[in-house]
Amino acid sequence: MMLYLALPLTILLYWLTRKLYQRIPLPFINPLLIPMVVLMLILHFGQLPLQDFMDGTWIINWLLKPAVVALALPLYQQMIHIKAKIKPIMICCSVSVVISILTSMLICRAMGIDEEITRSIATRSITTPLAMSVSESLGGIPSIAAAVVIMVGISGAVIGFPLLKLFGVTDPQAQGLAIGACSHAIGTAAATERGVTQGAFSSLALVVCGILTALIAPIMFAIYGLIL
């Protein structure tokens, strides 16, 4: 049954959540968060096979790749502004990557978490395929990296903009960079809904931070290993 209900149920939940958010614009009423939680509960308590759900929603999975490529459109539209501020953009993304990896190391160390898990968590702020690849090259567990990335992305999509507002960050370019650097593709989807500028700069941060993490993370973990 789930094979045939998976796609219409997913679309219906997404549509209903968007309509609810338009009426009650609260951060936790998120079109990504609410449908995901509801579907997880249905699969768990209904003891329904996950594979049937995956087979039933294959078209959504297929559309993920062209959807990511489509993020290049707002990036192209804002290219003039991006070129004019390329230096501060690179500095912000580099600092973001270093802080993300360093905080993962320090928190995991303070909590006595296994080093293999630490190497898996350290890539939490970049998009899933890159996070899995980088964490594996570091000696981490790709499946854990993927799960953490998804949780971080949803958290950023839900509370990212309220936090930016709380700290007085109102510039659309700065908002986009912050969301893309911390919440990768899921956060970028939320940023795109806020505006073209936020979406473009979030897309840029997503790409730049992914590349920088692949370059910086091995160096930081090599230093981390020498210190320990």
UniProtKB/TrEMBL annotation:
Keyword NAD belongs to the record: no
Domain of life the protein comes from: Bacteria
Membrane-crossing segments per the record: 28-46, 58-76, 88-108, 144-164, 204-227
Pfam families: LrgB
Record keywords, A-Z: Membrane, Transmembrane, Transmembrane helix
Topology within the bilayer: Multi-pass membrane protein
Record carries keyword Transmembrane helix: yes
GO CC annotation terms, alphabetical: membrane
Protein name: LrgB family protein
Species in which this protein is naturally found: Tolumonas auensis (strain DSM 9187 / NBRC 110442 / TA 4)
Organism taxonomic ancestry: Bacteria, Pseudomonadati, Pseudomonadota, Gammaproteobacteria, Aeromonadales
